[in-house]
Amino acid sequence: MKKPAGETHLSRMALAGLMLLLLTGCAVKRTVAGGIPSEVESVIGTISDDIAQERYEKVYNEASELWKHDSTPKQSDETLKLLHTKLGKVESRTVNSATEQQNSGGPLKGRAFIVTYQTKFELGEAMETFTLVEENGRWKLARYLVNSTAL
C-alpha cells in the first residue's frame, strides 16, 4: 500500500529530526563568552608553574586518568622536559579560544574545557592547547598540545 505524498514527507522530516537530536546529544559545545572559569584558569596556572619549575612528576600525578592512560610517567616527563628545553619559560599568553563541552561518550566523556592560547615563550612562539576534564568535581589535565616552529 502506497503512503500519501504528505505522509512520506512527514516521516522523512521526523527521521531527520531524530537523527539531528541523536547527533547533537553526543557532544554539546559552547564557546565561552564570559571568560574562563577561575577554577580552570587556576589549574592551567598550576600546570604552567609546575612545568616552568620542572615538576614533571607532579604534573603527571595530578593529571586525569586519560593523561595517565595515554602516557607513562617516563613518557610524560620526557615530553614536558623537551618542550621546556626547546621553548623555555612562558613569557606571556593571550587566549585564542575557550570552549566548554559536555560529552556523552568518547575519551573526553563528561565535562571538558579546552583553552587555546597564543603563547610567547623565552625561545619562540607557539599555540598552546590545554584540555581539562572534570573528575570527581576537580579539573584535571587530559591533554596538552604545543604547536611551534621552534620545536
Q: How would you concisely characterize the structure shown here?
A:
By secondary structure, the chain is an alpha+beta fold. 43% of the residues lie in helices and 35% in strands. The chain has five helices and five strands.
How would you portray this structure in words?
The chain has 151 residues and is α+β, with helices and mostly antiparallel strands. The chain has helices at 5-26, 38-52, 56-62, 65-70, 73-87; strands spanning 27-31, 90-103, 110-121, 124-135, 138-147. Strand 3 (110-121) and strand 4 (124-135) form a beta hairpin. The radius of gyration is 21 Å and the shape is globular. The termini are far apart. Residues 8-29 have low confidence and may be disordered.
The stretches of 5 or more residues where confidence is low (pLDDT under 50) are: 8-29
Q: Termini distance?
A: 67 Å
| Spatial order of the strands forming the largest sheet | 1-2-3-4-5
Q: Indicate the mean pLDDT.
A: 83
| Helix-strand sequence | HEHHHHEEEE
Radius of gyration: 21 Å
Counted beta strands: 5
Strand-residue fraction? 35-45%
Major beta sheet, specifics? 5 strands, antiparallel
In DSSP terms (H or I, runs of 4 or more residues), the helix count works out at: 5
Estimated helix fraction: 40-55%
